[in-house]
Amino acid sequence: MSNSPSGYTPRPMSSGTTYALGGVALALIVLIVFLAYRWGSGGTEVRNDGYGPVRNPAVTAAVQSDGGVRLGLPDAPKTIEIYEDPLCPGCGNLEHLYGQEIAQKVDEGKLAVRYRFVNFLDPKSDSGDYSTRAAAALQCVAETGSGITYSKFHDTLFTTRQPEEGSGLTDDELATLATESGAPQTAHDCIRTGARTDQAKSQATAALDDLKAALEGDAATPSVFDVATKIDLENQDWVQRVAP
User: Fold this and answer.
1) Whole-model pTM above 0.70?
2) Beta strands in 5-148 (DSSP E)
3) What is the pLDDT of residues 108-119, one digit of tens each?
4) Residue 106: closest CA among 49, 148, 43
């Protein structure tokens, strides 16, 4: 049995309609790219741009028993905890946007920071252990006690010299960057020999466990805590709110 024809015969699309749809598609692509940029940059410009890393010579850096690094004046009234992976692009973005604002608060004595380093992106590096080695290098520099030196080195590793996923820095490169940040020969040797690497690996694993517990099993970096309260990093005024 033959089917009766429908009463509708499609007409060819006009060139005007084609151009209009093409314009809509292009506008959607532009919007998606813009929103992706806004999301990736936190929707804000660099805070306190031009301030740079810590500059107050009274600020100290210290490696703590769990492998975390505390940066701040000894009597700072507020301490936040920042979980970072040295290869994490979002962590680099956090430091790019807010690192200078944090540095000024640290210099003013209003804030101290405890950096907790994790290494779940080790497999994403070319060496298979970059995150661990970078965490160890940061500890080597923090051992010197200089807040200025540590802040410069930390800023370098997370901003201007942060590797892309699939790559990494060698121990020699890390040691050179530490020296350029003002670290003494002891820190340079500590990095080149991998003196803290094994310890940093186990400490990073423990830090990841702590982060998972704090986030109820869904670990993500960067994550910033004010005591047990996770800070909303989408609020561009979060540093000022924590340390007015």
Assistant:
1) yes
2) 60-63, 69-72, 79-84, 112-117
3) 999 999 999 999
4) 148
